[in-house]
Design a protein that fits this description.
Distance between the termini: 77 Å
Number of helices: 15
Number of strands: 8
Shape: rod-shaped
Strand content: 5-15%
């Protein structure tokens, strides 16, 4: 029997490559777009402020514990703990205010880490002095657990260098504490090999202290790997989110939301049949008008025109399917929203068309491009029926679109305005559908049967306008 060759070690190699790429390699921020860097810096700054809040909380907790704990005899002359806590509180407050006002430079973070452990270990040492206990008293203090909190605190910045620095200082600092204790407590019975004696007396068990240092090192290593992996994931997520936000501007808002929230991968050929209304809006004679304008002026005129039409369509639940030069094609009923454009697609489309015409009547009073466009006029075509709505294209280039008789008829009706000298034409079936959905209509209407170029049979159409004499054509 012949089969596929087995490559020994392939899973291991894949794991090593995955581990190196995601946990050992740091993202190269110099290659990231500016908008992505801004987003990451904003996140890091917010996390740094959170870290400062936690620092303040810790020092206040230390202070509270000190206040409620029993004190030594008032005759004692040396009380270092309040001074250590006061220094820590001042530094933590300065760091918090600084973080609120501006982004902190790296050197300030390193100094903050050094202060954290210097003051923590200083506080632990001061306890044995204040309570007049042997130096080995320090090694039994539960305050050592705060070492891990201070290391974990640096995870918030999502930069492994700060976690590694915190772990290194913590380990070296505890080594220094052990050295201090063994130099101060020099009695013959201070060092022991018995774990029980270590727990029940002031004796020092070197192995136990080495275990603490190893714990600090291992926790630091694990957190550093996790932070590096999280940083890579954050960079990827922010980059993709930024790209998605930029690309979503090329889609209608509801279409972009639908793609983002879809439970299944969008592929070419996927689609559904829906009962929808299709509205086409176009400027009469824009090509001729644009010929006498420079390119930037043409785009400004289109932008001005679209900024008036598009919000009206969207306010009635319409989806902008595409911009075709000066033409706009919108669909009603393809967003699955029953309340605003779903089952009431025809009603929503006619209401949008009415508002467009109402707004269009104010354009002659405007200045600039809208006034010029009003001289040429606009045309609207509306049709409705069962259409196919979905994705077309290939794997690396997709487009959401609608296909069907109603789509073609809408475009043909919009162009037929030129032939009839009208401004708004609609199919009789979509008009009847709108009436059934509650459309009362503010427009003057009359019905005709007309032969339309590109359509095989004469169509029953509805001619709509506020007043016949205001219809425009070119």
């Amino acid at each position: 029997m012949h089969g596929k060759p087995v490559v020994k070690g392939a899973p291991k190699l894949k794991f090593i490559a995955y581990f190196r790429e995601n946990f050992l390699t740091s993202p190269d921020r110099k290659k990231l777009p500016h908008r992505v860097l801004v987003a990451i810096h904003d996140r890091e700054r917010a996390n740094e402020i959170l870290a400062r809040i936690i620092q303040l909380t810790i020092v206040l907790l230390f202070t509270f514990i000190y206040i409620i704990s029993p004190k030594t005899s008032p005759d004692e002359a040396f009380y270092p703990v309040p001074y250590v806590l006061g220094t820590y509180l001042i530094i933590a407050t300065i760091g918090f205010i600084w973080a609120l006002k501006k982004e902190l430079p790296d050197w300030s973070i390193y100094c903050s880490i050094l202060f954290d452990f210097a003051l923590l270990y200083g506080l632990m040492i001061s306890f044995h002095m204040q309570y007049m206990q042997p130096a080995s008293f320090i090694l039994k203090a539960p305050a050592l657990l705060y070492v891990f909190i201070f290391i974990a605190l640096r995870v918030l910045r999502l930069e492994s260098k700060f976690v590694i620095t915190a772990g290194a200082i913590a380990a070296l600092g505890w080594f220094a504490v052990i050295f201090y204790v063994t130099r101060i407590d020099t009695g013959d019975n201070m060092l022991t090999r018995s774990y029980v004696e270590y727990l029940t007396s002031n004796s020092i068990l070197i192995g136990a202290e080495v275990d603490k240092i190893l714990s600090i090192v291992f926790v630091t290593a694990i957190l550093a790997l996790a932070v590096n992996g999280s940083a890579n994931l954050l960079v990827t997520a922010v980059t993709e989110k930024s790209a998605a936000q930029a690309l979503s501007r090329f889609f209608d808002t509801s279409v972009a939301s639908g793609i983002r929230d879809s439970q299944e991968e969008l592929v070419a050929g996927s689609g559904v049949k829906v009962n929808a209304a299709i509205l086409n809006v176009d400027i009469r004679g824009f090509t001729k008008m644009a010929a006498n304008m420079d390119a930037s002026r043409v785009m400004e005129a289109l932008s001005c025109y679209q900024s008036r039409i598009v919000p009206i369509i969207q306010s009635h639940g319409g989806i902008i399917d595409k911009f075709m030069g000066d033409g706009i094609m919108a669909t009603f009923g393809t967003n699955g929203n029953v309340e605003n454009g779903g089952s009431l697609c025809a009603l929503s489309a006619f209401q949008a068309a009415e508002d467009i015409l109402s707004d269009y009547q104010t354009w002659p009073d405007e200045s600039g491009d809208l006034k010029e466009i009003s001289k040429s006029g606009i045309g609207l075509g509306l049709a409705g029926g069962i259409i196919a709505h979905g994705a077309v294209g290939q794997s690396n280039r997709l487009e959401m679109t609608v296909i069907g008789t109603a789509v073609n008829l809408s475009a043909k009706l919009e162009k037929h305005n030129k032939t009839m000298g009208t401004i708004f034409l609609a199919g009789r079936n979509v008009y009847d559908m709108a009436k059934e959905q509650g459309y009362e209509g503010k427009l003057n209407t009359h019905f005709e049967t007309s032969a339309i170029e590109g359509v095989p049979e004469p169509q029953e159409i509805v001619v709509l306008d506020f007043a016949e004499e205001k219809a425009k054509a070119s």
